[in-house]
Design goal:
It is a single chain. Helices cover 42% and strands 18% of the residues. The strands form three sheets. The chain has a nine-stranded mixed sheet with strand order 1-2-3-5-4-6-7-13-14, with helices on both faces. The longest helix is centred in the first third of the chain and has 26 residues. It is globular, with a radius of gyration of 22 Å.
């Protein structure tokens, strides 16, 4: 019922958005006299803001066609290296460039597409042979393809690492986990190190991840712990409608995740749209486009399977299983002490309101048998959650530390 009601609302808003866009274009047309005086510019700008906010969105494209290496422009070829039912391993191949470290960027499965990390990928392209986990929207996965939970997520990461390790080329294989995947990536590192898997990462960088959510709990952590596990399964899980390939699949809808994040900082989002409106009225299209581009990505959401979402709530946020040593992957204990030769880098943002300070750093102390020389911590001053992997602080402060860490552990 919930999903069907949302689809009805989305269809209505799609029509309203199209009408508003038509009105905005008409009022802003240079051939229209009302575009120059009276209320025309103001009304046209208001309609444009509404049209953008209400427009339906699908999966964005990465759009990374080239990069610059040693002053030369190098073409980028997006390649699908491995396809799986719930995600694919994508490579950003640099044409004519060989060697260098291989880096797997593990994108969060948290309601947004992997393209949310476009800035992360773009910054690392001149330095590394970059791969990324391109997770699939759960509503598009037929029921016949089975389930996908946190244990499956770990299996995917291990298989992706083994696939990259088997490819030809020079340099070690490194892994960078952004936010939520810090937990499954840390677990995969534990298992691969214990098995002496030859494709285990040389380094694991964890950015703003909930390794131990008992440290400096945020509003996200409080939401996950103040209600019993049964409440989540009864109140936030929906069934995919018949209009999608995954009809009948039980999911945590992306629109609910987006609503939660928007409500956390509703005032800031309202101010952003007000500023966009003022920029449009003033004719400052460049500034308005920056806001549009951000929300184009931010509001592009996808569903995740209910079993993955509910297991994550249970294991990560309510039982703190990784932190207290009780997590079991397919009957096998996940022991951080098994990490003995994978260099760990933990990165946190000073103003992170999703993963509080200390939650990611906890991974370093849990790896009790890893030498101190193999551990590093960075607290990015003034950076919020998104600032540690996107924007100027990521490009100028955080990324150089990541590159230096990878270079020091080839």
């Amino acid at each position: 019922m919930l999903y069907n009601a949302y689809e009805m609302q989305r269809s209505m808003l799609a029509g309203a958005s199209a009408m508003a866009d038509f009105g905005a274009n008409m009022l802003q047309n240079p051939a229209n006299p009302f575009a120059y005086f009276g209320g025309g510019p103001v009304l046209g700008s208001a309609l444009e803001v509404f049209a953008h906010a209400a427009a339906p969105r699908g999966k964005p494209a990465f759009g990374l066609d080239s990069t610059v290496i040693d002053g030369k422009t190098v073409a980028i070829d997006e390649q699908i290296v491995l396809r799986k039912p719930f995600g694919q391993l994508k490579r950003f191949a640099r044409e004519g460039v060989t060697g260098g470290p291989k880096l797997l960027i593990v994108a969060p499965m948290s309601g947004h597409y992997a393209t949310l990390l476009r800035g992360t990928v773009e910054r690392m392209l001149p330095f590394a042979d970059v791969y990324i986990t391109d997770w699939r929207d759960a509503k598009l996965v037929p029921l016949a393809d089975g389930k996908f939970d946190l244990d499956d997520y770990i299996d995917y990461i291990i298989e992706f690492m083994e696939t990259i390790g088997a490819n030809e080329g020079q340099g070690g294989v490194h892994m960078l986990a952004v936010c939520q995947p810090s937990v499954p990536c840390y677990a995969a590192a534990c298992l691969m190190n214990a098995d002496k898997n030859p494709c285990r990462p040389k380094t694991l960088t964890m950015m703003g991840g909930p390794i131990d959510t008992r440290e400096a709990p945020t509003a996200v952590n409080t939401l996950a712990t103040e209600r019993p596990h049964s409440w989540f399964s009864q109140n936030v899980i929906a069934t995919v409608p018949m209009t999608y390939p995954g009809a009948g699949r039980s999911v945590y809808p992306g629109f609910l995740q987006l609503a939660g994040f928007m409500s956390m900082n509703l005032g800031n989002h309202m101010v952003s749209h007000w500023e966009m409106f003022k920029h449009l009225v003033q004719g400052d299209e460049d500034s308005a486009d920056l806001t549009k581009d951000f929300y184009e990505e931010y509001r592009s959401v996808c569903d995740m399977t209910s079993e993955f979402y509910l297991q994550t709530i249970d294991v990560v946020f309510q039982k703190h299983a990784i932190a207290n040593g009780t997590y079991v992957h397919r009957g096998r204990p996940v022991d951080p002490a098994a990490i003995t030769d994978i260099a760990l880098l933990a990165i946190e943002g000073e103003r992170d309101d999703i993963s509080g300070l200390g939650q990611t750093k906890a991974a370093l102390s849990l790896a009790s048998k890893l030498p101190l020389s193999q551990k590093k911590y960075l607290m990015a001053e003034g950076a919020g959650h998104y600032g540690i992997f996107n924007g100027s602080k990521w490009r100028n402060t955080v990324a150089p530390v990541v590159e230096a860490w990878i270079t020091a552990h080839p």
